[in-house]
Amino acid sequence: MVRSGIRRQCLQAITMPGNLPTNGKEFIGVWWLRKTIHLDEVPAEPVTLRLGRIVDADTAYINGHEVGGTGYQYPPRRYNVTPDMLKKGENVIAIRITSGGGSTGFVQDKAYFLGTDKARYPLAGEWHYKIAAKMPRLAGSTFIRWQPMGLYNAMIAPATRFPLTGALWYQGESNSGAPNDYAEKLTAMINHWRGQWQQPDMPFIIVQLTNFMARQAQPVQSNWAVLRDQQRQVGTLDNTASVVTLDVGEWNDIHPVNKATVGKRLALAARNIAYDQDIAYQGPVPTTAERQDDRVIVHFSHTGEGLTESSPLTQSFAIAGADNQYYWADVRISNDKVILSSAKVSQP
Question: How many helices (H) and strands (E) in the chain?
Fold first, then answer.
């Protein structure tokens, strides 16, 4: 057991999830969060301290017992808490957070609780905090992976001596700033890898970018959408496929938690392309679009027994007229077609 290093009288109230109040200035350093909860009984089995996602690094304590820590912001926080760490009555949760700069805190719209899937003590609401230390920004470092050939020479080239059935490619976020040549670059890389492994037909399966960042009230241009289309183009090469993940992401997490669905879709594609199994893996793919009066009709392939709506299609499609001003479309499904219209666009 260790002392958490903070006393209640030294702390200020704060509502979590949320960020450390910094008056618009970046914070580099260490700060503490503390919350007291009341338990009527000590659980008989271990429970989970679920702390959503924290920016940047954290170490968590309950009643002075260190229960877990994470060194950077992206992984979900799930810390195991055994019954001997808890007590009947008041229990103190303390979180030591290290910030490397910018906003720091608990990410919104994530799960924060102590308990299990069946019984949870919610942790959202009032906490208390204290800044422990401020530090100057360190000089930037040069990461070899950001240099030409930095990743390839260290990680890929040595592996070309080993047999390989195929490749799964889950990347693209860092290219969204300049997405228009992504298909050309990725195609060149695929061809190079196939040459290095001396497998001209080596299967290559691409995960399209997921849905990330807050949804916009009105249609806007999106580099992420452009990059997804670039990935789709690469997926039309021989022995390649692209896997859609637009429905399984999270607006506030560039690394969404639901990896199981992504893995299942990749496995279906691999079974078909790499292992020659006659199995459907491809979801609906738009093939052509035509204008009929005040409507746009989009045709799809790979529709199985027909397109269905698994979730509301509100604000899913947008159309524009000659002025190139886009509006959310009213959507109707008809077999393998999606019919789009808008009262604001008489001639789409």
Answer: 4, 21
CATH superfamily assigned to domain 8-134: Galactose-binding domain-like (2.60.120.260)
Q: How many CA atoms lie within 13 A of 90 on its CB side?
A: 4
Per-residue pLDDT at 126 exceeds 80: yes
SS3 153: helix
Burial class (CB in 10 A: 0-12, 13-18, 19+), 228: buried
- Residue 173, classified by CB atoms within 10 Å of its CB into exposed (0-12), middle (13-18) or buried (19+), is middle
1 — pLDDT class (breaks 50, 70, 90): low
pLDDT > 70: percent of the chain: 97
Of the candidate CATH numbers 3.40.50.150, 3.40.50.720, 3.40.50.2000, 3.40.50.1110, the domain formed by 144-273 belongs to 3.40.50.1110
User: What does pTM read for this prediction?
Assistant: 0.83
